[in-house]
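We close this part of the discussion by returning to an individual protein. The amino acid sequence and the backbone structure tokens for this protein are reproduced below:
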Amino acid sequence: MWLNHATVKRSARLYPILLALTWCLIFGSSLYLTQGSAHAAQATAKWNSVSNASGYKVYYGSQSRSYSSNVNAGTATTYTVANLAAGTTYYFALTAYNSSGAESGYSSEVSYKTPCTFSISPTSSSIAAAGGTGSVAVTTQTGCAWSVTNGTPWITITSGASGTGNGTVAYSIAANTATTSRSAAITIASNTFSCTQSGTSGTTTYRITASAGAGGAISPAGATVNRGASQTFTITPNSGYRISNVTVDGASVGAVSTYTFTNVTATHTIGASFASSTTSTTRLASLTIYPASVKGGVSSRGTVVLSAAAPSGGAAVSLKSSVWAGVVPASVRVPAGSTSASFTITTSTPYYNTSVVITAAYGSVSKEATLYVTR
């Protein structure tokens, strides 16, 4: 391939030779990679012979008019410069010399950019039927542009669809719902990237996770289900409790006693909560403080007691203090199934010995107890 043509007639004032050169460069041999080795690009220079010339030199380098290398071609009128770096612009010029070694000036300069080379890693991927993500590293020379060509609908390029120089291509693979495997190839930086995805089968299984709160049970307590099969769960409250709510994959389906998953093709969750069904009303039975007398700055402890076990979710008993010298939290919660809970009374040194009245209330019932705080 003829890429450039230059004719130069220069008289070398310092040398007894009149050089008239007509020359061209033929560039070929694209760089390619094999395992463990590479063949670099090359350029072939050809020129017309000049009378009185005893030989010729080919100068070249990666900077214009600043040549880092030269070769003596002798009397030949063609020379192939091998082992050039890929993706690099080279500049070439020719001189002639006579029998005394006197050398002419440079001919006109021609340039040529060697082809870019691209490699990817990895070159293939195997993906499970459920799908997944991955990435491919692109290696090339600085300034070499590349892109991705993808015509496969179940492969999505999530980033790096094109780039310049080294880069990374990220992709995602959709789930394969068919029972047979599938394969596809996309082109990344002129290289083929192959993807093979396995198919589903009749033995594919999915886990259904079950959970039950206090006051009842769910059966089975979890199950592994074949793809396409069904699974029924039974919700049973304990004595004195009722089903409060059932959730499937986080969404309420009501206070149902059974629930069936049909045509299972994914993992699921099921959960049940329960509430007390006792008709008697749980009341606040007592409030006690111990010690009942403390010096300001020393904490005391209060305890509330219910007449029966706290219902599902617990019982929140509100609290308040009559004087700043004794501070209590806004409420204390009696855990579900328990009958009592304690709280801390934080005191401060009063101006004088002070009685602090603590009040606890739950429902329509309230109780009081007195803490004596001294200086």
User: Anything to note?
Assistant: The radius of gyration is 44 Å. Confidence is low (pLDDT under 50) at residues 1-39. The first strand starts at residue 2 and ends at 12.
